[in-house]
Amino acid sequence: MRILTNEIINAVCYHTAQRRGLQPTDVEVQLSWDEEYGYTAEMWVQGRSQYLIEANLLEAIEQYVYSQYNIRAFRSDIQLGLDEEAGEFFADIAS
């Protein structure tokens, strides 16, 4: 199974909202990748910025695919990637 940028962002929004008692629409997320830090995201909640590392993204994706698709995936089953030509992030989830 593969989820793309919008669903990864949704995963982070839902996960953050659930943990903080907010609405998913209260969370904004921008994904990024660089050679030094790998996959990261900047998240804005109630006017405050926070950076997420890859482990945080994997945790959010893990919870998202369980709640949305009823698929129990572990972090080791999730591989993040970037299609540079399409400008699209993706997460491949082994089943």
From TrEMBL:
It holds the Pfam family DUF2653. This is DUF2653 domain-containing protein. InterPro entries: Uncharacterised_YxcD. It comes from the Bacteria. It comes from Paenibacillus agaridevorans.
